[in-house]
């Protein structure tokens, strides 16, 4: 969990340097903005969104800033517009997974700081509370993901039987994904295993001649694993010239897509389903 804690400065330390107190504030401001950017990047925000939110808060705090967003690290430098005082903070991107609720709360915090002119201490306190926000309940996500994937099956022309098979296969595959990620397994292996599991279950329509659109059930059974957010963020980063982040996200998404494709192919091959 990422927290930006205020540094306690003693009177003796401040008296040693006339600008000591202001330098401490610059240091804490840089630390807060870096922690904020790290968490916002980790929960699925695009680079341009991170830049806009940081700029909004930096203007409210009365400091100039520069930010460098790398695939796995964030650098934030702040300085006083009227002097040479500056500070730099470096953070590793938070490993919290995509979380749209957390993303929205952090964006709302940036607007509150800008509109209400919150001081640094209050901003840090609110950020700490937001950073403790947990993900949406896993059982709720499991059910809604299964229903959404079954809806995809219907969208591509699947019948009710195919939708039921996709619902069950997604329920099983996504639960396997949750268990493996909770056990800290490699995400690429997780995608391969979940895809294989879902494909093997949905292939029952072909094997037992159930329903009129078994091929649709098989084809849509792994759509819940498509890393759509990574693809969208990669395009956004490319448009705004964050090429390193764009390439990194695009390659991560491509590797995960290859893993789920390998799992689907393995399931079809083992169960003897013809390609054409």
Percentage of helical residues? 55-70%
The chain-level structural class is mainly alpha
Residue stretches low in confidence (pLDDT < 50, at least 5 long) are: 1-18
Which band does the percent of strand residues land in? Answer: 5-15%
Distance between the termini: 49 Å
The SSE string, one letter per element, is: HHHEEEHHHHHHHHH
Structure characterization notes:
The protein has 276 residues and is mainly alpha-helical. It is built from 12 helices and 3 strands, in the order αααβββααααααααα. It has a 3-stranded antiparallel sheet with strand order 1-2-3, covered by helices on one side. A hairpin with a 3-residue loop joins strand 1 (64-69) and strand 2 (73-79). The N and C termini lie far apart (49 Å).
Topology:
Elements: H1 11-16, H2 20-42, H3 47-61, E1 64-69, E2 73-79, E3 86-92, H4 100-116, H5 120-131, H6 138-155, H7 160-182, H8 187-202, H9 204-207, H10 214-220, H11 228-239, H12 243-270
Antiparallel strand pairs: 1-2, 2-3
Helix pairs in contact: 2-3, 2-5, 3-4, 4-5, 6-7, 6-10, 7-8, 7-10, 8-12, 11-12
